[in-house]
Design goal:
- About 55% of the residues lie in helices and about 0% in strands.
- The radius of gyration is 11 Å and the shape is globular.
- The chain has one domain: ACP-like (Non-ribosomal Peptide Synthetase Peptidyl Carrier Protein, Chain A, Orthogonal Bundle).
- It is mostly helical.
- It comes from Aquirufa nivalisilvae.
- This is Carrier domain-containing protein.
Length: about 80
């Protein structure tokens, strides 16, 4: 499964915007995601991509989709 596409879909859904509006270089904070949304996406990441302990703080440390994708690639 393509992580970038999956993440775009999740963010668009949580932010109630079209996938086409999700800019992969835009900071997550731009999408006005609340902490519950971030925790939910983190939990789904663990499940879908079989990762352990995906800390929601990753969305602050790697604050764009492209940066988080680089982190994800290094996990596999």
């Amino acid at each position: 499964m393509n992580f970038k596409h999956w993440l775009i879909t999740q963010i668009a859904s949580e932010a109630s915007i079209a996938e086409e509006e999700v800019d992969c270089d835009m900071a997550f904070e731009h999408f006005n995601l609340d902490s519950l949304s971030i925790v939910s996406i983190s939990f789904e990441m663990e499940s879908v991509f079989q990762l352990e302990n995906v800390d929601p703080s990753l969305f602050s440390e790697f604050n764009t989709i492209n940066k988080l994708c680089v982190w994800m690639e290094n996990q596999q």
